[in-house]
Hints:
The protein is mostly helical.
Amino acid sequence: MNILELLPIGQENAIASQTLADLCGYKTVRQLQKDIEALRINGEVIASTCQDGGGYFIPANKEELGAYIRTVENRANNSFRSLESAMQALRDLEKNDA
Protein backbone atom coordinates (compact mmCIF):
# COMPACT_ATOMS: atom_id res chain seq x y z
CA MET A 1 0.00 0.00 0.00
CA ASN A 2 0.94 3.65 -0.37
CA ILE A 3 2.53 5.35 2.65
CA LEU A 4 0.36 8.46 2.34
CA GLU A 5 -2.83 6.40 2.22
CA LEU A 6 -1.92 4.69 5.49
CA LEU A 7 -0.82 7.70 7.51
CA PRO A 8 -3.35 8.66 10.17
CA ILE A 9 -4.31 12.22 10.93
CA GLY A 10 -3.36 13.47 14.38
CA GLN A 11 -0.48 12.70 16.69
CA GLU A 12 -2.68 10.62 18.98
CA ASN A 13 -3.16 8.22 16.04
CA ALA A 14 0.52 7.98 15.05
CA ILE A 15 1.45 4.66 13.47
CA ALA A 16 4.64 2.92 14.57
CA SER A 17 7.38 2.77 11.97
CA GLN A 18 7.59 -1.04 12.05
CA THR A 19 3.82 -1.35 11.64
CA LEU A 20 3.84 1.10 8.72
CA ALA A 21 6.79 -0.70 7.13
CA ASP A 22 4.99 -4.03 7.42
CA LEU A 23 1.76 -2.66 5.96
CA CYS A 24 3.65 -1.11 3.04
CA GLY A 25 5.61 -4.28 2.36
CA TYR A 26 9.07 -2.97 3.28
CA LYS A 27 11.70 -5.44 4.42
CA THR A 28 13.26 -2.88 6.76
CA VAL A 29 12.22 0.26 8.61
CA ARG A 30 15.24 2.00 7.04
CA GLN A 31 13.68 1.54 3.57
CA LEU A 32 10.48 3.13 4.86
CA GLN A 33 12.43 6.03 6.37
CA LYS A 34 14.19 6.69 3.06
CA ASP A 35 10.88 6.83 1.21
CA ILE A 36 9.36 9.11 3.85
CA GLU A 37 12.41 11.37 3.49
CA ALA A 38 11.85 11.48 -0.28
CA LEU A 39 8.16 12.32 0.21
CA ARG A 40 9.11 15.12 2.60
CA ILE A 41 11.65 16.51 0.13
CA ASN A 42 8.87 16.55 -2.47
CA GLY A 43 6.66 18.65 -0.21
CA GLU A 44 4.59 16.16 1.78
CA VAL A 45 4.13 17.05 5.43
CA ILE A 46 4.72 13.84 7.34
CA ALA A 47 5.28 14.39 11.03
CA SER A 48 6.75 11.98 13.52
CA THR A 49 6.86 11.73 17.26
CA CYS A 50 8.78 9.79 19.88
CA GLN A 51 6.05 10.25 22.50
CA ASP A 52 3.79 7.39 23.56
CA GLY A 53 5.60 4.78 21.49
CA GLY A 54 6.23 7.13 18.59
CA GLY A 55 5.27 6.92 14.97
CA TYR A 56 4.33 8.83 11.85
CA PHE A 57 1.23 10.94 11.25
CA ILE A 58 -0.24 13.86 9.33
CA PRO A 59 -0.60 16.87 11.64
CA ALA A 60 -4.24 17.54 12.46
CA ASN A 61 -3.82 21.20 13.34
CA LYS A 62 -1.37 24.07 13.62
CA GLU A 63 -0.40 23.08 17.18
CA GLU A 64 0.75 19.62 16.06
CA LEU A 65 2.54 21.07 13.06
CA GLY A 66 4.23 23.71 15.21
CA ALA A 67 5.36 21.09 17.74
CA TYR A 68 6.80 18.96 14.95
CA ILE A 69 8.63 21.96 13.48
CA ARG A 70 10.15 22.79 16.88
CA THR A 71 11.31 19.18 17.29
CA VAL A 72 12.99 19.17 13.88
CA GLU A 73 14.58 22.57 14.53
CA ASN A 74 15.98 21.34 17.85
CA ARG A 75 17.44 18.22 16.22
CA ALA A 76 18.99 20.32 13.47
CA ASN A 77 20.50 22.73 15.98
CA ASN A 78 21.95 19.85 18.01
CA SER A 79 23.41 18.29 14.87
CA PHE A 80 24.90 21.61 13.83
CA ARG A 81 26.54 22.09 17.25
CA SER A 82 28.04 18.59 16.99
CA LEU A 83 29.29 19.38 13.50
CA GLU A 84 30.86 22.64 14.65
CA SER A 85 32.83 20.94 17.44
CA ALA A 86 34.00 18.17 15.11
CA MET A 87 35.09 20.72 12.52
CA GLN A 88 37.00 22.66 15.17
CA ALA A 89 38.75 19.46 16.28
CA LEU A 90 39.74 18.78 12.66
CA ARG A 91 41.11 22.32 12.27
CA ASP A 92 43.13 21.84 15.47
CA LEU A 93 44.54 18.54 14.20
CA GLU A 94 45.42 20.10 10.86
CA LYS A 95 47.28 22.94 12.63
CA ASN A 96 49.30 20.37 14.57
CA ASP A 97 50.17 18.52 11.35
CA ALA A 98 51.49 21.69 9.71
